[in-house]
Structures are given as structure tokens and as C-alpha cells.
Amino acid sequence: MAEAHQAVAFQFTVTPDGIDLRLSHEALKQIYLSGLHSWKKKFIRFKNGIITGVYPASPSSWLIVVVGVMSTMYAKIDPSLGIIAKINRTLDTTAQGCGHCMSSQTKNVVSGILFGTGLWVALIVTMRYSLKVLLSYHGWMFAQHGKMSRATKIWMYLESVKPLMKESDFKRMTVLAEDFAVSLGPKLQWYLKLKSWWATNYVSDWWEAYVYLRGRGPLMVNSNYYAMDLLYVLPTQIQAARAGNAIHAILLYRRRLDREEIKPIFLLGSTVPLCSAQWERMFNTSRIPGEETDTIQHIRDSKHIVVFHEGRYFKVWLYHDGRLLTPREIEQQMQRILDDPSEPQPGEAKLAALTAGERVPWAKCRQAYFGRGKNKQSLDAVEKAAFFVTLDETEQGYRKEDPDASMDSYAKSLLHGRCFDRWFDKSFTFIVFKNGKIGMNAEHSWADAPIVAHLWEYVLAMDSFHLGYAEDGHCKGDPNPNIPYPTRLQWDIPEECQEVIETSLNSANILANDVDFHSFPFHTFGKGLIKKCRTSPDAFVQLALQLAHYQDMGKFCLTYEASMTRLFREGRTETVRSCTAESCNFVLAMVDPTQTVEQRLRLFQIASEKHQHLYRLAMTGSGIDRHLFCLYVVSKYLAVDSPFLKEVLSEPWRLSTSQTPQQQVELFDLERNPEYVSSGGGFGPVADDGYGVSYILVGENLISFHISSKFSSPETDSHRFGKHLKQAMTDIISLFGSSANSRK
User: Fold this and answer.
1) pLDDT tens for residues 119-132?
2) 384 near 376, Cβ under 8 Å?
3) With left for phi above 0 and alpha for psi between -120 and 50, is residue 624 left, alpha or beta?
4) What is the pLDDT of residues 658-697, one digit of tens each?
5) 571 Cβ partners below 8 Å, 6+ apart?
6) Which of 123, 141, 515, 689 could cross-link to 616 by cystine, CB 3.0-4.6 Å?
7) What is the dihedral of CA 486, 492, 495, 501, to 10 degrees?
8) Are 728 and 547 in contact (CB under 8 A)?
9) pTM for the predicted model, two decimal places
10) Residues marked as catalytic
């Protein structure tokens, strides 16, 4: 076979005249180009290392400083206050000790360069410290700002649970909290403060280790989340072509990331940067199962992807002739996989179910059956791939004739699929459906949703506005018959392992079939109208969620809203406790027919301001939940029990919410292209008897919601909650219209 021949660099045969060496020039060329590509990447990283190493200065600024110093020296002015003269004498002494003699002019030049370099380094250190001090200031978010004490955070916790507890339970919790604040709390806080002095971030490593990696339950539904395609636009219905463009766009993003060309996200215009550390493990990353805890495996580079189709695994190289494959060449490779008639090997088809089930059986199975031979080689190919791709056999996406059913099916397919056709351990699985619709399933431990959303925005924009398609729906350009075919991964899976696979698949199917999903676009109004009402769009949606939940359940519940903490180095998330005394007062006023519009509107504004204040506190490191979590971890290390902390961390979040931010609005220009709106993404329910709600405010006139719950809970129903949410949104916005009319 031609591809087998190209894979061999040289061959030899023994003849009567000796050894006849037959070189394969094509293979040697590929080796040379591959090495050239690697050295280019090393050079770019070296160059970027120098540039970032001297930030906020630049390498050229060194020359400016040195030339400035030398100029003043030749003008008979000493800018060093005698330091250059001391360097001069030291050089003279050193030269004499070595038996060398330096001319006066040489000593002056060397002394000037050394002083100029020292001055340049001192300026860099000073500027860095000044930037650190400036960026540590978060007062721009508040009218008044100050650091929050441990006692204040405990009081804030009590304030957040008071609306949810009976009077007797709240008194008991208050006693526990007050006792903790004066007894065990200060001791735990001392250890935590010690860690904050030593570690870059006192929360993030423990959060990753204990919340994510030590979880022994399935990642599928419970932890992984998904991202959807554009809502209305389908640029091509050719599955391989859509895969070609999108995979190429993902690889272009990876190249920009490798070259450190992706600019940080800024707040306050373009003044305050957010930490970009989470981007580091986006590609070439896989979660590795362990019996007690998982680990994250990240390699520096990967030149292939692994593609799953109809129960088979294929390895696809991403480079040819020392360059990245073009979209048309990737389409060709995807079509070759789609056309491949081979059958799955025994145990291969449902192998990925191991990543969908419980972690301990997968860890034991991996150690017993995937530690050697072809199984190890194939598993390495999957885990060390740049990312994982699934060519799905179903058709998904929004359909006008049946919007609810089509979106619900689309969401469930992205969240769990058939439980064996996504590799849930990979940093992300890119999914291409039969009709050309695409999506993504992402593992959560390595980074949070905004990081994946940033990649996804780039991919959708690049696919739609830059790469494009030919008139016949194929990728632009020509196929290349010289590219080797994708190679099948080989497996030797014994019957004992196949039994574990079936067991994992059965438990995963039970979990997947229990997920009740409702995903829908809300068109009635968007953030444009909300902002005209002079209120925060996020606070508006959160209060609508509180009203909807009360109308759905007849009670309030502990509510989780994720807020980012990337104003801090290596920051991840903090919790905004959206159910407050103020939000409860507003909700009760909305269901009380005796309350006037003005009274309801006043309570709404109070609740909205409280929510915005809590969100700012969370963003600026003054939230309460991550702090209490870290105190709990310290207590476990010290082997001491805290009834207060134990109760705090055991409280269920029956309403878990998250907003997906739009970070690159300029990529789409929705004024010119109003149909290119995103569907956002979603996640599974956090509590068995609760709801998970994700939403994205797209442009000025659309909000997409993703609601999840479990069929097994008699209390929840995602579609019922969706109806209440739509009504709550409409009822709240009508307050502003009614108030304006009454004033007239």
C-alpha cells in the first residue's frame, strides 16, 4: 500500500556485494518537514518567552536605556551617582587578576552597558510591582470598598440562608456559626493565610483536586457540559465538509494559542485584564482515571486527532509536507472515514462507555487491560490526541416545525449522546452530526465554560465568515490524493473487559435516560430592552428564575450562580447566592395580588441592586463559599470536625445557574448578520430534585435558555419550569411598562 510505503524511512536488502540501502525520499522529506515544524514552534516559544519575560518593557527598550546611559556618559554626565565608576574599578581589578588589561574606553563601554542593563531590570521590576498594585485594586466596582473579615463572611452566609430556614433551624445554625467564629475558625484561618502567602492562588488547586478530580461518580451529565452550533444557520449539510472547516478553525486557534497571540480578556474597556492561565490545557489534554483520584495529563504538542465513527476509532494526522492540513484535505480525511466499510473489533464499539460510567471501574480496567501492547498504543493515541472528534450518525439542530423537541434532542445528544460515542475524559469532544450541525462536549476539571466558549466563538466565526464553502457545499480548495489514509486503531479487548464496558454502559444509560432537558430561544425581548429599564440583564434573569422557581415549586431554595474570579491569578469561580431576603420579598410581592406595580418595582430594584452587589463581591474575592470550602479542607488535613462547616458544605443547590458570556461580539457583527446568533450551551442538574439552568444573552433581542432536571424526581419538570420562566420574564418586564403608563 502506498501509505505503508511512505511510513518507512528506508529499507535494506543483503546482496552478494554487501548491503543495498534503498532510501525513501518522500518519507525522509516528511521527517525533515516535521522536524522543521517542531523547531519553528520552539523558536516561536523562545521568542515569546523573551517578550513575556521582560514585560511590561520590550527587548528594544533595553537598547534605548543603554544608548541613553552611554549618551549621558559621553556628555560628561554621570547618571549612576557613582555606580559606573565602581563598576569601572571592579573591572580593572578583575582584569588585572586575570592578567589582562582593558583599555579605558572598553571599561567605560562595558560599565555603561552593565549599569544600563541593571537600570532596565530595575525599571521592569518597578513597573511590574506597580501594575500588580494597580490591578489588585477592585474599588472601581464599588462605591465603597474594603477587605472583608472572616466574621463578616460568616454573617453573609447566615444572611443568605435565613430566607430558606425555619426559625428554629436558623437559630441553631447561628449558634454553630458564632461558635466556629471564635473557636476553630481562627485556627483554620491561620493555616489558610499561610497558604495564601506561599501559593499563587489559595483556592484553585484544592478546588480542582477535591471538587473535580476526586469525584468518583460519572463525568457524563454530572460534570461535563456542552456548547451548541449557531441557532438558525447551517452553512453546509455535508458532514465531512463541516468537519473540515471546523477542525481547521480549531487548529488555527491552537496555533494562535501556541504562539501566544490570543489577547487576554479585558474588563473596564481595555484596562483590567483577566487571568489567562486556564487556556494552557485546552489542547493535548486528557483526564486519567485513578482509583482514589484522577489526574490531568497534558502534553506540550500533538500532531494528530482521533475520530470515532460507527464504533471504529481512526487516527488522523494533522500535518502534511510540514504544514497544517487545509479544510478540503481534512474534509477528504473525514470522508474516507465515513466511506470506510470495516466493522468494529470485539469490544471496540462501546469502549468509550468506560469514560461515561463510574471512575473506579474504569481506573481498574485501564490498569488491567490497557497497560501494554496494542491496547496501550491505541489508548495513548486517544489520550494524547489534540482533541477527540465524533462523526455522529444522527441529525440534530433547531427545526421550525418542531422547535421544542428538536432543541431538547440536540441538547441531550451533546450532553451524553449514546453514552459510548463521546470520549468524556478528553478536554473536549468535537461532534459533527450527519446533517452538518456541530457541537462540543467539554470536560470540566481543566477549565471553566468561558474558556471553551472563547474557542467556540472563534470557530463559528471563522467557519462562517472566513473559510466559507464552495457552491456545492464542499470546503474550498482541492483534495490531495497524496495524503496517507487515516489509520484504524487496533484493540485486543478480552471478554472480562467487555463485561466491565457493558456494566458501565448500563449505568450510564440509566443516568442519561433520566435527564429531562428543555432548551429554547426566548424571542420576546432581550438585553436591549432590559438595559433601557436601567437594570442589570443578569440580575433581571436571576430574579425571573427566582420567580419561576417559586411558581413551579411553591418555595424558595438555595441558588447557585457561577461568577468568575479571573481578576486574580489562576482564579476560577465563586458562588453568587442569588436567593436573598430581597429577592424573596420581590417574589412574594409578585404573587400577592394586593401589591401595587410601584411596590413591586421598588422591591425589584432593591433585589436587583443586592444581586449586583453580591456579584461584585464574588468577582473581587469577597465571596463566601470558596473561602468556607478551603477552611473545610484545612479542617480535614488537621483531622478536626466542624459541625458548622460540615452543614454548610452538605447543603444541596436545588437551583444551579450559569450565564454563558459573549466575549468576542465583534466576530459576528449581529447588526449586519442578525441570523448568526448562538444557542449557547448547558449542563446537567446538580441536585437529583433540582434544576440546572444555563442562559446566554445574544445580541440585543434574544436569550437562549437550557433547563435540565431528572425524570425520576416527582417535583421537577423542565418544560413546566420553562413555561414559568417565560411567564416570569414577561411579568417582570411589564412592570416597567405599567409604571411608565401610570406616571403618564
Assistant:
1) 878 887 887 777 67
2) no
3) alpha
4) 999 888 877 888 888 889 998 999 999 999 999 999 999 9
5) 201, 203, 204, 275, 564, 565, 621
6) 141
7) -40
8) yes
9) 0.84
10) 444
